[in-house]
Specification:
4 helices, 12% strand, alpha/beta, three-stranded parallel beta sheet
Length: 99
């Protein structure tokens, strides 16, 4: 059974959350699962790396239970097309910043 959403921390033994996000999105069986990174890493480059890896949201600890529930509801409602548009916008912004 496939979960409706996964909440992932960045710091984990074995592989980090960014690697897990990429692995899940790279597998056709799990590619459509909405993913939220929830971490204590607050710096902007971590946030950007999480979204660029394919997470639908990047939340920092501490987070209120209601904010987490709201984020879950939001990512579960995202369409595949919207997820792809968001990732493309990040890539476009990164390319513009590098120019």
């Amino acid at each position: 059974m496939r979960p409706d959403c996964a909440v992932i921390d960045v710091k984990m033994p074995g592989l980090d959350g960014y690697q897990l996000v990429r692995a899940l999105h790279g597998d056709p069986d799990t590619a459509a699962i909405p993913l939220i990174i929830l971490t204590a890493l607050t710096q902007e480059h971590y946030h950007f790396a999480g979204l660029l890896a394919g997470a639908d949201r990047y939340l920092t600890k501490p987070v209120t239970p209601s904010a987490l529930v709201q984020a879950i509801h939001e990512v579960v409602r995202l369409s595949e097309a919207e997820r792809a548009r968001r990732l493309q916008a990040l890539l476009d912004d990164d390319a513009d910043a590098s120019s």
